[in-house]
Write a structure and sequence with these properties.
CATH superfamily of the largest domain in chain A: NAD(P)-binding Rossmann-like Domain
Structural class of chain A: alpha/beta
Strand order of the largest sheet of chain A: 3-2-1-4-5-6-7-8
Order of helices and strands of chain A: HEHEHEEHEHEEHEHHHHHH
Largest sheet of chain A: 8 strands, mixed
Number of strands of chain A: 8
CATH topology of the largest domain in chain A: Rossmann fold
Low-confidence stretches of chain A: 1-6, 295-299
CATH architecture of the largest domain in chain A: 3-Layer(aba) Sandwich
Largest interface: A-B, 98 and 98 residues
Oligomer: homodimer
Strand content of chain A: 5-15%
Shape of chain A: globular
Helix content of chain A: 40-55%
Mean pLDDT of chain A: 92
């Protein structure tokens, strides 16, 4: 990452945010902080989200794809199924001097959707590991990206000058940059992100089903339960296409998780509590591992 | 709960804390805040924990069971396997005017261990839903119990005057009291607490196993992962006997959880993403449910 690029002020005239939810809206708020000169245009399939984003001061103007030829910087923060459809159309419209970044939680299909596009060099594939279980413009906040990891894929396919512009913004936002290929990204992120969401959703489902007639029971839950089911509040519209695009990796992680749970159950049933202890003791290493994770509202 | 009892000052001469870890130590710190007159004695199988508790000002004096005949209030906060062995011995030693409370995460076997004890009326079976993933005296803090739920079982078996003394303390500490029978407690707590711990431990195990040769991968994890594996930092010495004592209920919750995960995997494999969406959408109800959970470092 270029220190020179990062130390420059954000000097972009027209910025388009496609998808003015938590991710796009938080980018807009941070850009606003670092640049009073930029004009931020919001594009979204939801008219009410656009109105809300305008009202909250997240965007300066409601726009559509007609703005794209005049944009210097385009941030596409929409569900990954729509992303792979829209990205080629967006690249069709932007100028040669515009950089388009995404924020999708899958990278293989996203990169594949534009691999032969004549404007592939205008696209930078990104996955900022940041977010919360909430969504929509009202969930956006300044500082979401501070100290967070941004995984960039296929950096070599993006024009140098445009890489530099995007990296300059990420540096302003104090993001940590990691470079990976798209396949490795999808394989590893299945373990450290996608599986957590499924384990959380299914934990929530199991407890809700069991306790459906005894709502008072949740009075007995503490923040241990709250912590493990937090991700079950996440948006199905965002997560369904992620699981679809990363199906193969996600199914593999699920199989290993189910196998470990089944083995733990077997130990309990066979009263092998020495082994039960050992399993938990071994996993306590997660304490050391987690120390390396940047704190805050990351996903 | 008696308002009269709660409004009285804590007026106890000798308080014994058996187990000076997070739970016992936090009780000691809160009692200290509300009563400068009480003398707090620490009893523990770990000499180093006792030294630490004394050094941290959690206890006034290191003691052993010889102090019990002179105690007004005894808090037993030790792993549930040791608890069921020690509780009858403790009751043997206390005076008729002493109340003994526990803090175990299981209640059936604990209550059974003293059901025919001649001093059963001196015991109040408690489960404060409070704690963190950390343990030992240094993890103790003032205010741990503020606003937290305390489940009391078999209240009718405790002498009224002694109930009143314990409830007076809980009111001072601003705890919410819930009364249940021991079997219902164990059945429900398996869902809202014990299962969360296993789901978290096995998630940690799955990811550590997969990524053992690629430690950098945890760089990619955000606090979504951190949130779902937080409980995997918990103490195996505390949790193994909980799972043992509540084996039947825990195995049942695990079976339902594994079944839900397996069904979700099947939906993915059969490309039934409408149903995948529906499953997550249904579970989003957890948002409303969680609003009722007291926030803070509860377990």
């Amino acid at each position: 990452m270029s220190g020179r690029a990062g130390s420059r002020p954000i000097n972009m005239k027209n910025i388009a945010i496609i998808g003015v939810g938590l991710i796009g809206g938080s980018f807009a708020k941070d850009i606003r902080k670092h640049s009073t000169k930029s004009r931020i245009f919001g594009v979204d399939s939801s008219a009410s989200h656009l109105d809300e984003a305008l009202e909250l001061g997240i965007i300066d103007e409601i726009a559509d794809y007609d703005i794209l030829p005049d944009a210097d910087f385009v941030i596409v923060a929409i569900p990954v199924d729509v992303l792979v459809q829209e990205l080629p159309k967006i690249l069709n419209l932007v100028s040669d001097d515009c950089v388009v970044i995404d924020a999708g939680s899958t990278k293989s299909l996203v990169c594949k959707s534009v691999e032969n596009h004549p404007k592939r060099r205008n696209f930078l594939a990104c996955h900022p590991i940041a977010g919360t279980e909430f969504s929509g413009p009202s969930a956006a906040f300044q500082g979401l990206y501070d100290g967070k990891t941004n995984i960039i894929c296929e950096i070599e396919k993006t024009a140098f000058k445009l890489q530099e512009r995007a990296l300059g913004l990420f540096q302003k936002l104090n993001m940590r940059i990691r470079y990976m290929n798209a396949e490795a990204h999808d394989r590893h992120i299945a373990y450290v992100s996608h599986l957590s969401h499924i384990s959380s959703f299914m934990l929530g489902k199991t407890v809700i089903e069991k306790e459906k007639n005894e709502r008072d029971i949740f009075d007995l839950a503490g923040s241990g339960f709250e912590s493990t089911v937090r991700l079950a509040k996440s948006s199905p519209a965002m997560w369904t296409p992620i699981f679809e695009q990363n199906k193969e990796n996600v199914v593999e992680t699920l199989e290993e998780y189910i196998q470990n749970l089944t083995e733990f159950k077997r130990l309990l049933q066979h009263d092998d509590f020495d082994k039960v202890y050992q399993e938990m003791d071994n996993t306590n290493r997660i304490r050391e591992i987690l120390k390396g994770i940047p704190v805050g509202n990351t996903k």
